[in-house]
């Protein structure tokens, strides 16, 4: 690929992560001058699969087995219930949990 805005026609390495439905889920560009790490892409695929399967988000550097970020509660009752369900909350809207 040729990177948009490049001053010349030097190639850029790009990695595309496409899900089983054919949807592009991630696109990562690396310039020729910098390496890339296959374990980073494996982590990204695992994070995408975990997010899809559990309707959660994964923080930066997340690895399988780490806590995930859960969506914010929809009302006060749901927020209060989280306090007794094993969630770790830094505020009513930001909670993590183990899967």
Which term fits the overall shape? elongated
Pattern of helices and strands: EEHEHEE
Q: What Rg do the Cα atoms give?
A: 18 Å
Structural class: alpha+beta
Q: So what's the CATH class of the largest domain?
A: Alpha Beta
Q: Count up the domains.
A: 2
Strand content: 25-35%
Overall description:
There is one protein chain. The chain has helices at 38-54, 76-82; strands at 12-18, 24-31, 68-70, 88-91, 94-97. With 99 residues, it is α+β, with helices and mostly antiparallel strands. The mean pLDDT is 87. The protein folds into two domains: 1-33, no CATH class; 37-97, 2-Layer Sandwich (Antioxidant, Horf6, Chain A, domain 2), CATH 3.30.1020.10.
Please specify the SSE layout and strand pairing.
Elements: E1 12-18, E2 24-31, H1 38-54, E3 68-70, H2 76-82, E4 88-91, E5 94-97
Antiparallel strand pairs: 1-2, 3-5, 4-5
Short key terms for the protein model shown above:
Antioxidant, Horf6, Chain A, domain 2, 99 residues, 3-stranded antiparallel β-sheet, two-stranded antiparallel ribbon, alpha+beta, single chain, 2 domains
Explain briefly what this protein structure is.
Helices cover 24% and strands 26% of the residues.
């Amino acid at each position: 690929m040729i990177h948009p805005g490049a001053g010349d026609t030097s190639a850029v390495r790009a990695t595309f992560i496409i899900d089983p439905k054919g949807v592009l889920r991630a696109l990562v560009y690396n310039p020729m001058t910098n390496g890339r790490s296959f374990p980073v892409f494996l982590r990204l695929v695992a994070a995408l699969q975990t997010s899809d399967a559990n309707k959660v988000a994964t923080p930066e550097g997340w690895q399988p087995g780490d806590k995930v970020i859960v969506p914010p509660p929809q009302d006060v009752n749901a927020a209060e219930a989280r306090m007794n369900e094993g969630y770790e909350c830094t505020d009513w809207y930001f909670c993590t949990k183990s899967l």
